[in-house]
Structures are given as C-alpha cells and as structure tokens.
Amino acid sequence: MTNGWVWVDTLSKIDEAREDISRSPIICVDTEYDSFRYFRAVLCLIQIEADEKTYLFDPLNGLDYSFLGSVFADPNILKVMHAGNNDVRILKRDYGFAFHNIFDTHRAASILGCHYLSLAALVGRYLGIEFEKKKSMQRSRWDTRPLSWEQLQYAVEDTAYLKELYRRLEEEIEEKGLKVDALKSFEGIADVMWGENHFDLRGYKNIKGYQSLAAHQKRCLKHLYRWRFQKANVTNLALFRILPDQTLLDLVRMEAPSMDMLTYSGVLSYEKMTRYGAEIMEILRNSEEP
Q: Which of 29, 59, 159, 254 is a plausible cystine mate for 49, CB 3.0–4.6 Å?
C-alpha cells in the first residue's frame, strides 16, 4: 500500500506529483471513465501510484497535466496497469500521449494460464489479500464533483496492489520462459488506439419486438433508430439517455400520431417531449409513406 494519496488540484500539487512520478522507476496507472451514460466515454479520473504517494488527477478541472506525456513515453519508467487497453486508448484520445514500457497484470496472468483474471482474484491468489471491487462503484457517477470518500478509496485501491502483483507475476513469467510472449503482448497494449462508435445500418432489426411490427412501423423504426444515433453523437449522451429501445417501439406503434398524442400518451416524458417532440413528429410523419 502507499503512504497516502493526493488530490491534485493546485499548481503546487502538480509540481509535487511531477517530481515524485518522474523519479519513480515503476509507477502504477489506472483511470476511471464513464462509458455507460455517454455516447463517447468521458475520462473522469487518472490514478498514478509513484514511490511516495498515489496521485489523483481530475481531467474535468481544466488543469494542465501534459507533463504525464513524457512519463508515459519514457522507456526507463515501467508503467504497471491492469487490463489497461481502454485506459491507454482514452489517454491517447484526450491527451495525445504515447506509451512505452507497459506491464499489464491482466495480460500477464492470462499468459500464465490463470482462469480468474479480475484484479481482486489475482491479488487474492498472488498476495493473499482479499478486497471487494463493487460493481456499483465502477458504475457510480465519476463525472460528478465532489467525489465521495468511498469513490476516492476505490480509486486509490485500484493501484495499491499493482506493484507487488507485478513483481510476483514477473518472477513467474521469467521462471516459465514466457518473457518474449509477455513483452509482445504488452507492446500490443501500448499500440492500441481509440475507435469511435460506428453506426450499425441493420441494428434496428435487433431491437426486441421488431419482427412483430408492420412494414410501415419497421420503416419508421429504422428512421428513428438513425435519428437517435445522430442525436447521441451530437450531445454525447448514451443511446438510452436519448430514448430507450422500448420507447422507440412505443412511438412507431402509435396510430395516427400527433403532438397532442405525444404530449398526453405518456410515451415521452415532459423533458423528452420538450426537447425532441417536434423532431420525432417529423420523423413519424415522413415515415408513413415508403
């Protein structure tokens, strides 16, 4: 475990973090991001454990953390991560960072033939320490401020055991002659890139209930499905936060829809009606004919 942690929110704390991280031969890295509520995942926290402390960087506060680029690119500093693919992708996307010299405990354990690859499982197996990683915390509101004490403890714990876990896994990899395989796998993580969401032209056909629709309703669903994707992309809200699948079905099943019907049917909330009602009505009307 670390000697403590610092919420980096001032220039003096950035200087402290820079000095500690830059002189640490091994750092442990993790992030918290929200890919559930947003169309395009939002990076909400960067955790780095250095020699002296764990530093929590808030990407939402507007401070300059560009010094981390030279740290991540430095081949003389080992970056220990767990299932770091998405962490690397989102850090590259938002900051343009490059990565060299990664050790990923998830990949390492997989190469060693471990069947249970969660961080908690590996820490239990190799370090004999039991700790709980709550799914509810993983999906909590990392985009809101201030973060709760429970969230902060969860974030710090994500890197607290990585250094010792790395040492145990590295030793076993060496003993089994798997060093070359491991290095190749880690290089693959360093090379990953962010990929934007792509529109699935036929995705509307996978919505449960599609097969029971009439031809004109299927056509209408197709248009609403495309509109929802475009709206989610522009607003950076998850698809379900625009309209869930069931609401799309309820809309296309309406007979002779009108603004009054949309308003009083309860299919749309007042907020959704105010925000999207006119656009939805235009789609419904234009989809009535082939």
A: 159
